[in-house]
Specification:
Largest sheet of chain C: 9 strands, mixed
Strand content of chain C: 15-25%
Number of helices of chain B: 4
CATH class of the largest domain in chain C: Alpha Beta
Helix content of chain B: 25-40%
Chains: A alpha/beta, B alpha/beta, C alpha/beta
CATH superfamily of the largest domain in chain C: Metal-dependent hydrolases
Number of domains of chain B: 1
Shape of chain B: globular
Helix content of chain C: 25-40%
Strand order of the largest sheet of chain B: 3-2-4-5-6
Oligomer: heterotrimer
Radius of gyration of chain B: 16 Å
Order of helices and strands of chain B: EHEHEEHEEEHE
CATH architecture of chain B: 3-Layer(aba) Sandwich
Structural class of chain C: alpha/beta
Shape of chain C: globular
């Protein structure tokens, strides 16, 4: 399949073939990451700009490493040190990046739609590293990659995503991607964090974790922003944890050796108990490597060929 | 491969004989099989490497380690070719540190694929030596590269296409010389 | 003197909806008759030159009155000012516009009321009537000097842009405004329910991950203000109604005899939440676009009279402000120049709404409710009129807009059916789509 896309903005509008091609390419990239010499000449002379309006050391480092392994020059525009804090609009920043003739921009932004806003302005490719509550496609792809590594073909598998679904771009992207691959996805959370409009994702919804768990191959806990309690979205961490916290005991209800994932950072003792968090931590190394592999794949697909040469 | 048929260069027997000879030459030139690692360059280098592995096993009783090399990420023409090539896995299951790596491909032409394969191999470790085996050498080198083992030297014009067909990949088994159909030199 | 011949007059104030000849003299409607002869006309001209206009195939109706515009002057003239806004008005078929009070400073004193009114007179296009705030500084606590402001020319009172959250303040406002006979215009938005939402809460907001504003953010205040109006017997006008629940509440209140009128914005009649795109802020508007069901209920409400008026809520913004990620762009659609044609094309032509009802809701009812001149072509009335050509075609292009703002969803769209001549007090101010 010939790669057509200039940008990776979300999973919602991605085809199954595209997702497969990304996963396939990532597999090759992972092989490279396992080698002693992690450096390729592939993107020599190409420049990748990281534009992070929200701090996220993990995601930013992952993208930086991905770009560097592929031989690209990577520049990070840290928001605190740049004009973005002096009231420069994203539009102006985009114009500057355009003038710098970057080949690819990685953006993380607090506003839903910021990545597609940037993509509309720039000739360069854009990868969405998380936009508001909208999507976080690279996180979902790496989660899917990890699931496939562990479970093989995901068709017909059961994935439960539990927590603050309403505010979670990770949940949205995963729900879109997993559905496309034939996974049965169930979203779980209290009605305030999983309101009726989330039916728009087209997957099952439940407010009862215990009844959603049986048969789950993967359980993904979402990070609970503790300030949501102050907004009245749930009464207490105690009650949240009782109803939706993942514990070893509760995970037995899956009646399987389920994989537990968490996009991190985890609130131990809230959405995830200490011992379950340890099992997630055990997967961290793999997740980090897979994250770099997925991002390498995307960077290669977007700017590795001739169709994306910025004139 | 699109093109007008001109002649058949090798048939199935011809290919078999050429590969068998290369297998013998590899063992002879390296004075045995001790340090050998066979690495097929995707895509048709892979079945050729498998066959060489099999022949050596038959006459030496040794199964040589076999790797697969995908050179896509090392190509120097990525930003010029139309269809972006799909990246596949590189799978070299043994360490090549201090080994004699035999790179195996179907056709040697400009030398650019071999150059990419050399770089890709070096990134896997530091072998004692690297040698190159090809089924057909058709000339027109653009880089200072030569093959150590050649199944068939074939003088060609740039307008001609050498089509290697192997049953594992293509169903058929032969080497054909074709002429480009379009008059456009590109 | 003007003689408009064989023009299809739409004047619901006199229940005229037929071809007539219309005479305009000294800034007023002189005569309106089924047909006039040269002899009749020259007798009435009394020596004055007569400009004759062949009106066949065109509509003539009283100039539209828009009770909800944001002209941004004083304070935000980069978005719009009274001159550009009133020029945009006449280009779009409006001869009277009410200017909302949420400028910088807010219009909470007679001096400021007079300023807006005078700026409107100096501009000399549409009549510009100021709306004063309800509370000082639009802070939602102390009432403004309503009587004095009325003397200065205030047409109504509204904290539009902000809601009066304190129900007691709203109750007092409805009571005190009785001194003036002017309505209190409610912004109908519960601040807490609306939160920092960006679009109507629903499947579309869920899908795009845009924070939602529930329909209740509007309806709760509509319900509250209807109860307060009923209790106080005050005069209430509900701005930009956008939900089916609100329509239902208003319908019931009217049946009980509450002194309430309500308006709907053209964009709520034409678009719905599903039309919103994450990377296009042009439909980011407050109140947000509702569901398809809401839109149907609004059209029904407008047809059956539950909703009395159409009003643009013309909300001009600069391109720089609108060229931002969705969450960061301001709410609002600039609509004075396109609203009438949009309603014509999207509602009248498909048969959803009659032109008579449009004129009634956009001219007759506003004049009646706010006690304004206009809204009629009765002989003696000021000749504020629109000649509308249903065949005239135009592509909406930035270069043609006279408003400073470009934030309209109709850019690049082609319209058929536009106002081609507009008179304010008998003076031609727009001809062939050009503001004179």
């Amino acid at each position: 399949m010939k790669w057509q896309r200039k940008d990776i903005l979300g999973i919602e509008d991605m085809s199954v073939e595209e997702i497969r091609q990304i996963l396939h390419t990532a597999k090759a990239m992972k092989g490279i990451l396992m080698r002693p010499i992690k450096k390729l000449p592939t993107l020599k002379g190409k420049s990748v700009v990281n534009l992070f309006y929200e701090s996220s050391t993990r995601t930013r480092t992952s993208f930086e490493m991905a770009g560097k392994v592929l031989g690209a020059d990577t520049t990070s525009i840290a928001v605190a040190q740049s004009s973005v804090n002096k009231g420069e609009s994203l539009y102006d920043t985009a114009k500057t990046i355009q003038a710098l003739r970057a080949d690819l921009v990685i953006i993380r932004h607090q506003s839903s739609g910021a990545a597609s806003f940037l993509a509309d302005i720039l000739d360069a490719g854009v990868i969405n590293a998380g936009d508001g509550q909208h999507e976080h496609p690279t996180q979902a792809l790496l989660d899917i990659f990890t699931m496939e590594e562990r479970l093989g073909d995901l068709e017909g598998k059961n994935v439960v995503i539990v927590g603050d679904v309403l505010h979670s771009r990770v949940a949205r992207s995963n729900a879109w991607g997993l559905q496309k691959l034939g996974v049965n996805v169930t979203l779980v959370g209290p009605p305030t964090l999983l309101p009726v409009e989330m039916a728009s994702l087209g997957v099952k919804m439940s407010h009862d974790l215990n009844s959603a768990l049986p048969g789950a191959d993967v359980v993904m806990a979402l990070r609970l922003q503790l300030e949501r309690q102050k907004s009245g979205l749930f009464p207490s961490l105690r009650e949240y944890s009782q109803l939706y916290g993942l514990t070893t005991e509760r995970l037995k209800k899956t009646q399987k050796q389920s994989i537990v994932l968490h996009p991190g950072p985890m609130n131990r003792g809230v959405e995830i108990s200490d011992d379950v968090a340890d099992s997630v931590d055990a997967l961290i190394e793999r997740q980090v490597t897979n994250g770099v592999a997925i991002r390498m794949a995307l960077i290669y697909l977007l700017i590795g060929g001739s169709s994306n040469v910025v004139a | 491969m699109e093109g007008i048929f001109k002649s058949k260069i090798l048939d199935a027997d011809g290919i078999r004989r050429a590969i068998t000879r290369i297998a013998h030459e590899i063992v002879e030139k390296n004075k045995g099989t001790e340090k050998l690692v066979l690495v097929g360059i995707r895509r048709r280098g892979v079945p050729l490497a498998e066959r060489i592995q099999k022949y050596i096993e038959e006459f030496e009783g040794v199964t040589l380690p076999l790797g697969i090399l995908d050179i896509t990420l090392y190509r120097d023409d990525l930003s010029t070719i139309d269809v972006q090539p799909v990246v596949h896995e590189t799978d070299v299951p043994v360490s090549i540190e201090g080994k004699a790596v035999i790179l195996i491909d179907d056709v040697l032409y400009t030398g650019r694929t071999a150059r990419a394969a050399l770089d890709a191999t070096m990134d896997l470790g530091r072998p004692e030596r690297i040698q190159l085996a090809v089924l057909v050498d058709r000339g027109h080198r653009e880089l200072p590269i030569r093959a150590d083992y050649v199944g068939k030297n074939l003088p060609t014009s740039r307008r001609e296409i050498v089509a290697v067909r192997l049953k594992e990949v293509d169903g058929d088994e032969d080497v054909l010389l074709l002429e480009r159909e379009d008059d456009n030199p590109n | 003197m003007w003689w408009l011949k064989e023009v299809a007059v739409i004047d619901p104030s006199q229940t005229i909806s037929s071809p007539c000849d219309v005479l305009i003299k000294d800034g007023k409607v002189l005569d309106i008759a089924s047909s006039l002869t040269e002899v009749d006309v020259s007798a009435k001209a009394q020596g004055e030159a007569v400009e004759t206009i062949e009106g066949k195939g065109k509509f003539l109706f009283p100039g539209l009155i828009d009770v909800h515009t944001h002209l941004r002057e004083p304070g935000q003239e980069e978005k719009e000012d009274i001159l550009s806004g009133s020029r945009a008005a006449v280009r779009g078929g409006f001869t009277t516009i009410l200017a909302m009070a949420n400028t910088q400073p807010v219009i909470d004193k007679r001096a400021l009321i007079e300023f807006v009114r005078l700026q409107g007179e100096r501009a000399g296009y549409a009549h510009v009537l100021p709306i004063g705030t309800v509370t000082k500084g639009m802070q939602g606590s102390e009432l403004v000097e309503m009587a004095d402001m009325k003397e200065g020319g205030a047409a109504a009172f509204s904290d539009d842009g902000k809601n009066i959250q304190n129900a007691e303040v709203m109750r007092l406002a409805l009571e005190y405004a009785k001194l003036t006979g002017l309505p209190i215009i409610s912004h109908c938005e519960d601040k807490d329910l609306a939160g920092d939402g960006l679009m109507r809460r629903g499947l579309a907001s869920g899908r795009m991950g845009l924070r939602g504003i529930p329909g209740s953010a509007e309806s709760v205040i509509v319900g509250r203000d209807l109860i307060l109006a009923e209790e106080t017997r005050g005069k209430l006008h509900l701005a930009h109604i956008s939900t089916a629940e609100s329509v239902d509440l208003i319908r019931k209140a009217k049946a009980r005899g509450v002194d309430v009128t309500a308006e709907v914005n053209p964009h709520h009649l034409i678009f719905c939440d599903e039309d919103i795109k994450l990377n296009d802020t042009v439909l980011k508007v407050n109140p947000p676009l509702g569901s398809k069901e809401d839109r149907e209920a609004l059209i029904e409400g407008l047809k059956d009279g539950t909703i009395d008026m159409i009003a643009t809520d013309h909300a001009p913004h600069t391109q720089a402000e609108k060229t931002r990620p969705f969450a960061e762009a301001p709410f609002g659609i600039a609509s004075l120049e396109t609203a009438l044609s949009a309603v014509w094309q999207h509602l009248v032509v498909p048969g959803r709404l009659s032109l008579d009802r449009v004129v009634e809701a956009w001219s007759v009812s506003p004049a009646k409710r706010f006690g304004l001149n206009g809204g009629t072509l009765k002989p003696g009335a000021p000749a504020d009129m629109v000649l509308f050509d249903p065949d005239y075609k135009e592509v909406i292009k930035p270069a043609n807009l006279v408003s400073k703002a470009r934030n309209t969803p109709f850019l690049g769209k082609s319209f058929q059916g536009l106002p081609v001549m507009v008179w304010v007090e008998g003076r031609l101010v727009q001809k062939d789509r050009m503001v004179l």
